[in-house]
Amino acid sequence: MNSRWVLPVALLFSGFLLRPLDTEAEKDHTFGAIGSSVLLDPEYGANLSKSEVLWVYVGSNGHSVNILDYVPNHTLAEPYEHFRSRLHFNASNGSLMLKNLKPSDQGVFTISVDGEKKWTTDLKIIEPLSKPLISSNSSFVGVTIELTCQVPKGKASSIGWLLDDLSITSGQRFLLLQNNSKLIISAAKKSDCGIYTCVVENPVSKQHTTYLLSVYGLSPWHYCTLGFSIATLITLVAVSSLMKTISCLKEVKKIRQGVDERTGINVDVKLTEGVPAVLWFLLKLPFVLLITAFVFWILNE
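Structure for Ig-like domain-containing protein, as requested:
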């Protein structure tokens, strides 16, 4: 044989020799909830009513126990004491129904047909989840709001958040921490108000709860808008008062025309000098303040 073929053939032959002789399927995983029932179904695909079927259980202590031994045309023996009155066996397909699950039922179950192992599953007993609770540390504009989702009973394998039925992911506005149990809202805004939903899951249950978040207070932009609006109102009042005062002064009959005999100063000039410029400025100021307040309002929105 050509030497270049020796190594590939040797590797192929060694792989054939080293492969497992046991052809049973890989171990499966089954989940059950405490207090409920679970079906252990090997899905054998054949009628087993005329075959000997043996179910074996290995618990946390590592001991192997025959929990059910079915022999055709023979009375079915009493199940293993730990599972007594909680097992239902289906002879046609070999499936086993385990009722009223307990934490101590957790372990490895194996079915053998006519002495040959056919299927193995690792049964995990999990506590169902209770309805989660959402708490908040604050509800004011501009602060960092933390929404915390807690599950009083059971352990969640996944936690998710929704805002008005839309999924929330970590980004510029939101941050998810501690396996998604904590939702951080940075520099909260009025637009962050809404219905927040926390969804928790594990292999045997799913629960959710909602929380209505209301954000109170004014943002810095709102305070600026409010300040300029108040300044506009004060300016308008001041201009109105000044205009009324000037109007009154013009109508005072005691003001003499011409030069004051005592001071030698023209009275009309003394009263009106510089007033037009001040009035022009005061009349324009409210419009400037209103425009500024409008700009801050737009920025806030």
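Residues 157 and 202 are 5 Å apart (CA to CA).
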